[in-house]
Each structure stands twice: as structure tokens, then as C-alpha cells.
Amino acid sequence: MTTSASQEIKNSTINLLCAYQKNPSLKLRNQIVQHNIGLVRKEAHHWMHQCNEGFDDLLQVGCIGLIRAIERFEIKKGHAFSSFAIPYIRGEIQHYLRDRSNAVRIPRRWLTMQRQAETTIRSLHTQLNRYPNDLEIASAMGISVNEWHEVKLASKNRSLLSLDAPVSDEGEQSTSLGELVPDRRYNSFQLAMEDRIRLQQALVQLENRTRQVLEFVFLHDLTQKETAERMGISSVTVSRQVKKGLENLKNLMGTEL
């Protein structure tokens, strides 16, 4: 693409964004998507060579990220739209690929060390007549404490978390993790591509705080506690906003999620 053609696209995009922000319409948004589809194609080509997903699927996922960027772009800040949009496109594709992954991949060496650690801990427990601390375990295995911490963390992340795990918020009554999940059948926004597009359209219609909570919890995979800390509200409030938001989305989309 020549410099003049690239500049023409940039100017046209800004004009369309100005018009869209004054009077949002599906037609205008689709025009902006078409003007910037090259950004999505480039990312889709890049990730296609690093996974088993087809180009068309990655292209559709990337378009969802582009739509999110269109909805959040602020012209007054003076940023180039392409620079603003690429992280959204890339993030949406990465999130999709992570959701499609069957398991957490752990280096083979760490898997071996996890098995070795089980034997080492049992032996130390017998010798010391108590559970060994991290320094004692790492020394017996001939590794640093930092590496042992990484092995432990990988093992923990590989295990499924029980919905009966207790969680609490300062000043609030303790509850279980399962009680904070609005629907135990619901994992994340892992929907068919057409539904993901409809979902994105519905999200932008929600009240701002409710939309932010849903995006942090389901699109960015933050825990409810992390979401609460980021937004300066309690975990219980986050839970309520999640339930409220899902109900609103069901009404807007006219279907069960």
C-alpha cells in the first residue's frame, strides 16, 4: 500500500469515527470495519502460523476486537486509530486461542520436578517429623527457592479450583466460590462466532459499570476480587453486577447465554 493510500484510509477512518460517535449506526460501524480490515488480516495471518485454527475463524475473532476498539476509541486524545485497535484485535485472538486450548502446558522439566518433589517431601517429613519448608525442599532437590516456587505455582494452576473453595471480602460475610458464579454451567464467553458478535453489540448497550465488570471477569479473565480491586468496589458488588449484567444481556439478546 502506498503512503498516499494509507493516509487516505486514515483520514477516511477518522471522518467515519467522528460521524459514528455523533450518530452510532450499524452501517457506519461496518464501513469503519471494512476500512481497517487490513489490520485484522495481518494479525490473523500472524497467528495462523502459530496454531491450528483456520484463517477465516481468526479473521472473524479479530473483527470482534476491531469492533471493541471502534466503540472505545476517543478521537479527542489524538491517538492513531490503527495503533489503538491492534492491541484489541490481538487480545481478542489470543483470548480465543487460550479458550480453545485443552490444557495448561507446563515444561516437561517442571513436570518431572513435581513428581520428584512428592518423594522428597515425604522423605523430609519423615526425617524432620513435620512438613518441610520451601527452603528445605528446594535444597534437597538441588534447585533454587525461586524455581521451586515456579514449580509449585505451575502445579497449582494446572489443577481445577473447587467451587466449594471459601472466599471472603473484608467486612462481608464469607461465602463459597460457587455462590459467586451466576451459573455453574457458565465458564466464559466461549460462544459461536455469530453469537460473539451479537454479544459485543449487546455489551455496549449496558450501563458503563456493569459492562466493565462483565468485561473484566469474562473477557479479561480477572477474578472477581481482582475486578473489585481495580474498580474500587467490593467483591459482593462485583458478584451482583455480574448477575445483573447477565440478566440484562439475556434480555437484550433475546436468548439464553
UniProtKB/TrEMBL annotation:
All residue ranges annotated as the RNA polymerase sigma-70 domain in the record: 57-70
UniProt keyword Metal-binding present: no
A Pfam family assignment: Sigma70_r4
Domain of life: Bacteria
The entry's keywords: DNA-binding, Sigma factor, Transcription, Transcription regulation
PANTHER family in UniProt: RNA POLYMERASE SIGMA-E FACTOR, SIGMA FACTOR F FLAGELLAR
Protein name: RNA polymerase sigma factor SigF
Organism: Roseofilum casamattae BLCC-M143
Taxonomic placement: Bacteria, Bacillati, Cyanobacteriota, Cyanophyceae, Desertifilales
